[in-house]
């Protein structure tokens, strides 16, 4: 039985501890103090490794780095960082999805790095940024200024379960990236063989659908030469015939493999918000999925015995060039940060060769630092994706990136469900985004955007 | 403050008239005038409710006024707002997704509110039964309302699983095909409507209070006149519950216009498939915090506020025809 006195003492002590704890996470700004919003609770050990390594260097002497795990939430929500910046409690450094950089820069959320590079590095911005892959730098460039340093990257490809394909009688050589790049027709035939249906008409084993996993409209757009924006005319081009062909692909596939049936299959074996262990691929019910190298660490952790392999994305015709796109993370300085030499050194360390070499192999992703790539500082299982990097690119760096992603994703489900035709879908997308881009009259993406990287050997 | 209270004959405790007589004989001076007393009372009253007034001013009036101001600007949350006049309202009128979101929200409101009232009234009647273990029933019926919306959403995702979920197991028992409600634009709305019914306990408690307020004597008189249970409900219970029904109707409509959490979780924040669960608040939220268009989101919020106000006024106007205030206490 707890006495009243003990209860009050305990409650007071708890309140004090909570109060002091919250004070400890909001240190006073100083020349050697860095407040950092990290990668997320699940990966906080990586942040801590880099912090310890940096503090052991000359640049890290007398520096204090306070890490809070307030991760960037993809394209969905910027409320936490906007609130922090407006409330005067912004971190000095923020680990963020690179795709959001241009939009966040356009609203004034981020500090440009150009002056810091010139002040602390005494080299030009292009010379300094030549340490990183071009597409990752382009994705951080808005109106000719750099708003962050790239960290990890990736690429898209197909992952397949050899056991499922073999059991279905599919020729595995067609999926071997060293022998063949599979075409859409061949993929469709393979899926027909893989599919199993129970007596009530439900899929119990399924092959592949282009709207699953990383099958975003952008993914297939890069293979069908569909461009979202024309730099020369400064116009949105989401209603081009190429974009219509992207949505036609969804419509054709849904005709063969109805969206509702595929969705029911997924809702059964991989429901929304399922834990990472509960996937249709890991349970041997899905043959092929669109994914990237980040999947490697999950495979090693949750399904080490499954024969999961990777290959290129499907092409239209035999002999067509392969294609992919890359996303990834970056480090940025939000507005209102305490910008110091120590901050710059830590940012440079984390996004540079040392930091990337330390954390990237643990993620399974790929580095953006050219030297880290060349020295093979990544998971060897990701080698196929590394070979894709020289010809990869990012999603278009536009200040309406989130809205564009949102509308493309929504109309994808409309077309797959059959409520909109591909022509209607691309018209909807254009009508939704073009007026938003009119606010950025004459906007130009970096001239190097979409060009193959000259900094990496193929 | 205490002196003001003491000087007020109406607050001087039992025997106010005697207190007044005492005050009249007070050698300290003449009794204050009626206007002075009224002013003092007003001041005292305002002082007592000042926390509420300050709270409303800071947390409701100021944000609403600020939001109305922002709705005439382009504002990202960072740079200074730029005046654009009624442009945001013009954009909203032409935005096809606003129409989709309004349609989805009305679909939800038109079904979820009446259904919710029916479920809540049924629960309240069950909670009002004169049986020994009624306290246990009340707890059981109210318990689902304590589950947070986000937790309930996760439970529903499992409940509606097309293969293993209890919902489909029941359908299968009757030989029906498996249904994936969350994969269909209409089905996902129906799922969210069903989910909302598990929160009917709150409205049921208010109905229960209304039921307990109806004097037993009226039922006894009705029984003497030969009225059965259905006749008693139609002629006594329902008419006398209409003030409570009005309250639950207005709060229900207000809540329905703001449906958000369940749809956000079951669709991973997308509102898909095919924008079937893109409710008005979700679209507003996307614009504000996904697309950093706080000016446009504010215009959407103002429109929602006006729509909610108009519906509330309409319900009040209609209520004159169906609300019965004849009996106030039992």
TrEMBL record, chain A:
Organism (species): Brachybacterium saurashtrense
Name by which UniProt lists this protein: Extracellular solute-binding protein
MF GO annotations: maltose binding
Gene3D superfamilies: Periplasmic binding protein-like II
A single cellular component GO annotation: ATP-binding cassette (ABC) transporter complex, substrate-binding subunit-containing
Coiled-coil intervals: none
PANTHER family: MALTOSE-BINDING PERIPLASMIC PROTEIN, MALTOSE_MALTODEXTRIN-BINDING PERIPLASMIC PROTEIN
Keyword Signal in annotation: yes
UniProtKB/TrEMBL annotation, chain B:
PROSITE patterns on file: ABC_TM1
GO biological process, one term: transmembrane transport
Domain ABC transmembrane type-1: 102-315
GO cellular component terms, A-Z: plasma membrane
Compartment(s) of residence: Cell membrane
PANTHER family: ABC TRANSPORTER PERMEASE PROTEIN, ABC TRANSPORTER PERMEASE PROTEIN YESP-RELATED
Record's protein name: Sugar ABC transporter permease
């Amino acid at each position: 039985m707890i006495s009243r006195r003990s209860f009050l003492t305990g409650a007071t002590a708890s309140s004090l501890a909570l109060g002091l704890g919250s004070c400890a996470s909001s240190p006073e700004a100083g020349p050697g103090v860095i407040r950092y919003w990290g990668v997320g609770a699940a990966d906080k050990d990586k942040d801590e490794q880099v912090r310890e390594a940096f503090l052991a260097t000359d640049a890290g002497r007398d520096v204090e780095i306070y890490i809070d795990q307030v991760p960037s939430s993809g394209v969905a929500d910027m409320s936490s960082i906007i609130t922090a910046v407006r409330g005067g409690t912004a971190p000095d450094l923020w680990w963020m999805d690179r795709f959001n950089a241009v939009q966040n820069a356009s609203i004034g959320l981020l500090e440009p790095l150009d002056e810091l590079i010139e002040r602390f590095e005494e080299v030009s911005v292009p010379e300094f940024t030549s340490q990183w892959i071009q597409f990752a730098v382009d994705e951080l460039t808005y109106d000719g200024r750099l708003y962050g340093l790239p960290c990890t990257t990736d690429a898209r490809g197909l992952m397949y379960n050899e056991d499922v394909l073999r059991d279905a009688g599919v020729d595995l050589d067609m999926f071997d990236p060293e022998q063949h790049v599979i075409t859409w027709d061949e993929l469709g035939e393979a899926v027909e063989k893989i599919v199993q249906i129970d007596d009530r008409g439900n899929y119990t084993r399924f092959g592949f659908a282009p709207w699953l996993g990383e099958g975003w409209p952008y993914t297939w757009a890069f293979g069908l030469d569909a461009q979202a924006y024309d730099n020369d005319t400064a116009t949105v081009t989401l209603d081009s015939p190429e974009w219509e062909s992207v949505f036609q692909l969804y419509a054709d596939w849904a005709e063969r493999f109805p969206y509702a049936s595929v969705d029911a299959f997924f809702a059964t074996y991989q429901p929304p918000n399922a834990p990472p262990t509960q996937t249709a691929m890991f349970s041997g019910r899905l043959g092929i999925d669109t994914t990237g190298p980040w999947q490697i660490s999950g495979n090693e952790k949750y399904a080490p015995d499954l024969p999961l392999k990777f290959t290129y994305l499907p092409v239209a015709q035999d002999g067509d060039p392969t294609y992919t796109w890359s996303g990834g993370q970056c480090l940025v300085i939000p507005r209102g940060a305490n910008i110091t030499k120590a901050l710059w050194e830590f940012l440079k360390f984390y996004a540079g060769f040392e930091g990337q070499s330390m954390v990237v192999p643990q993620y399974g992703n790929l580095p953006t630092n050219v030297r880290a790539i060349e020295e093979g500082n990544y998971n060897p299982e990701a080698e196929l994706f590394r070979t894709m990097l020289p010809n990869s690119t990012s999603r278009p760096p536009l200040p309406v990136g989130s809205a564009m992603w949102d509308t493309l994703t929504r109309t994808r489900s409309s077309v797959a469900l059959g409520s909109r035709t591909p022509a209607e879908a691309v018209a909807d997308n254009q009508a939704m985004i073009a007026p938003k881009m009119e606010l950025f009259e004459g906007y130009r993406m970096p001239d190097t955007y979409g060009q193959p990287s000259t900094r990496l050997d193929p | 403050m205490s002196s003001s209270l003491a000087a007020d004959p109406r607050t001087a405790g039992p025997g106010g008239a005697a207190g007044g007589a005492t005050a009249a004989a007070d050698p300290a001076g003449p009794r204050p005038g009626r206007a002075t007393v009224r002013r003092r009372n007003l001041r005292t009253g305002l002082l007592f409710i000042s926390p509420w007034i300050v709270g409303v001013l800071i947390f409701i009036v100021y944000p609403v006024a600020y939001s109305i101001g922002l709705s005439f600007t382009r504002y990202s949350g960072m740079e200074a707002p730029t005046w654009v006049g009624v442009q945001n309202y013009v954009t909203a009128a032409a935005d096809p997704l606003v129409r989709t979101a309004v349609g989805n929200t009305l679909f939800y409101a038109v079904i979820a509110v009446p259904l919710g009232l029916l479920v809540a009234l049924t629960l309240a009647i069950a909670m009002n039964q004169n049986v020994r273990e009624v306290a246990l029933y009340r707890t059981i019926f109210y318990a689902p309302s304590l589950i947070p919306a986000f937790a309930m959403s996760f439970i529903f995702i499992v409940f509606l699983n097309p293969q293993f979920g209890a919902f489909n197991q029941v359908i299968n028992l009757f030989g029906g095909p498996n249904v994936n409600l969350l994969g269909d634009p209409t089905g996902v709305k129906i799922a969210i409507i069903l989910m909302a019914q598990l929160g009917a306990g709150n409205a049921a408690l208010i109905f229960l209070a209304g039921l307990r307020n109806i004097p037993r004597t009226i039922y006894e008189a009705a029984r003497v006149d030969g009225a059965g249970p259905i006749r008693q409900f139609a002629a006594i219970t329902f008419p006398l519950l209409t003030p409570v029904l009005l309250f639950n109707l207005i709060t229900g409509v207000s809540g329905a216009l703001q449906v958000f959490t369940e749809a956000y979780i079951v669709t991973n924040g997308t509102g898909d498939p095919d924008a079937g669960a893109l409710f008005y608040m979700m679209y507003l939220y996307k614009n504000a915090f996904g697309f950093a268009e706080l000016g446009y989101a504010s215009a959407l919020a103002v429109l929602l506020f006006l729509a909610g106000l108009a519906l509330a006024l309409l319900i009040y106007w209609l209520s004159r025809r169906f609300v019965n205030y004849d009996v106030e206490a039992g």
